[in-house]
């Protein structure tokens, strides 16, 4: 993630999880002598990473920094192979490997190499784009914050948005008790619907059929920008609404884009194209899972694992959490806040 990024989650929803809640973000701020406000106080990536290091030192210990190259099923459980050549066996495995395997981009960019075309998660140091023309595809927080950071570091930025307007979240602030009763603060936004999604993932899985859960995940909490980002975008970054990229062709050291907009089709040129186009769960893209093991994972739909109420898939001892569990347990599993539901369940089984 680029330097200068700010988390979209409110501070109360940005804590890592430990059983006694001794190492919350609020406790970290108190220990460091920093002010803490649960809402309306955007959390910078730099501060969050410092908090994460503090949490690691107090609650976890020193992790082993090595990549897993393969998880293979064996009669007694699983065999794990690491890049350093080590192998070991275990009875249980928790897949908590995040978003990166599930990145998706427009098919028009598929044939272009990096760094001409890339997903927004791969841009790295934004200072390296100073003086360059950059086109961004997308309308959500990733697209808009990337655009702001690149613009502020000297890039010439255009954002192509298929929609007729940008959706901006309402400003967040500490509210009186009555207002919080009417529309409580929740892990994925304010309101009783958001509170239910944030606090009752087990009910979400149990009550709704799979197809309805999947539609809800795709149709709810769509692309939008944080309230604190708006002033950094409007009148500063060129936003091309009702515009869709139809073709991208490599040309010399850059790319030529053909874009369909409200005034017809036009061409534009850029040094880089960035797809801030999100993620799609597909367990077949977890390349560290040995193919025969992947094939044993039952699916609710293409790429979506069927999970028990305890996050266990059809392979005994194999648990899947995080974004890969979101189609089953709801949108809260795409956020750190979801760990409060997962961690207690898993800790009782491992």
Description:
By secondary structure, the protein is an alpha/beta fold. Among the domains are: about 5-60, no CATH class; about 100-170 and about 225-275, 3-Layer(bba) Sandwich (FAD/NAD(P)-binding domain). About 25% of the residues lie in helices and about 25% in strands. The mean pLDDT is about 95.
In sequence order, what are the helices and strands, one letter per element?
Answer: EHEHEEEEEEHEHEEHHHHEEEEEHEEEHH
Averaged pLDDT: 93
* Largest beta-sheet details: 5 strands, parallel
Q: What overall form do the CA principal axes indicate?
A: globular
Order of strands, main sheet, comes to 7-16-8-9-12
The CATH topology annotation of one domain reads as: FAD/NAD(P)-binding domain
CATH superfamily of one domain: FAD/NAD(P)-binding domain
What top-tier CATH class of one domain fits best? Alpha Beta
Please count the beta strands (DSSP E, at least 2 residues each).
19
In percent, how helical is the residue content? 25-40%
Strand content: 15-25%
Question: Which features would summarize this protein structure in a list?
Answer:
single chain; 350 residues; alpha/beta; FAD/NAD(P)-binding domain; 5-stranded parallel β-sheet; 3-stranded antiparallel β-sheet; 23% strand; globular
Summarize this, please?
The chain is α/β, with parallel strands linked by helices and 350 residues long. It has helices at 25-32, 45-60, 141-152, 177-182, 192-199, 201-207, 210-219, 230-233, 291-296, 326-329, 339-347; strands at residues 6-7, 43-44, 68-74, 77-82, 87-90, 93-95, 117-119, 133-137, 156-160, 185-186, 189-190, 238-240, 244-251, 254-261, 264-270, 272-275, 299-301, 304-305, 318-320. Among the domains are: 6-60, no CATH class; 102-168 and 224-275, FAD/NAD(P)-binding domain (3-Layer(bba) Sandwich), CATH 3.50.50.60.
